[in-house]
Design goal:
Low-confidence stretches: 1-5
Radius of gyration: 17 Å
Strand content: 15-25%
Mean pLDDT: 89
CATH topology: Alpha-Beta Plaits
Structural class: alpha+beta
Distance between the termini: 31 Å
Shape: globular
CATH architecture: 2-Layer Sandwich
């Protein structure tokens, strides 16, 4: 479901997807994958857990276990998207990539421009589904891990070799990209621990 309303939540895991503006491959263009890892660090430092993820050239799928607090999921995802967006704009500016900067500037709605927004970097909504069972969570993990080998992508022959994914952690017990992952089997006990 594309989220356009506040999500009231409790401790639990959520399958999240957000997409670059116009499906532009901004992660690839900027090589800005590490910006997602830095955002993950912020979430983990606040007691949340990263269960699984894949960062594709133009979108992110993640399973995040949010610990209940005063911020909604919308705010946490919005803050993450904003952090990544500012990082990309800096990288694009440093690289002198005027064509992409102009394209992102052309996507800003007039009402947003009046409030000072200069670039539209992500699609405005995001998808969010609560993982209420291990079966659903594993289904989503399988989906995100296979993403680099599906359809038009074919980014790698073996999905465990895609560097911006938790597949290697789940299938081989090794870390490739982000290292502070929590296996879904240990999630419930982990969320019960006090901060």
């Amino acid at each position: 479901m594309a989220v356009k309303h506040e999500i009231v939540h409790h401790n639990g895991a959520y399958f999240i997807t957000f997409t670059c503006y116009g499906w532009l491959p901004l992660f690839e263009i900027t090589n800005g994958y590490n910006l997602v890892y830095k955002w993950f660090d912020v979430l983990v430092n606040k007691g949340n857990r990263i269960i699984g993820y894949v960062i594709m050239p133009n979108h992110v799928h993640a399973i995040i276990a949010f610990r209940e607090d005063k911020q909604s999921i919308n705010t946490r995802i919005g803050n993450g998207k904003r952090f990544i967006a500012y990082g990309w704009i800096d990288l694009l500016t440093e690289a002198g990539n005027i064509a992409i900067l102009d394209k992102l500037a052309s996507g800003v709605e007039p009402s947003d421009a009046l409030r000072g927004k200069k670039h539209e970097v992500f699609e405005p909504s995001f998808d969010c589904k609560e993982c209420r069972s291990d079966k659903f969570l594993v289904q989503k993990l399988d989906y995100i891990h296979a993403n680099p080998c599906r359809g038009k992508w074919n980014l790698v022959d073996i999905y465990e070799n895609y560097p911006h994914s938790s597949a290697r952690f789940y299938n081989w017990g090794e870390h490739f990209g982000y290292k502070q992952l929590t296996h879904y089997r240990f999630l419930e006990d982990d969320l019960r621990k006090p901060l």
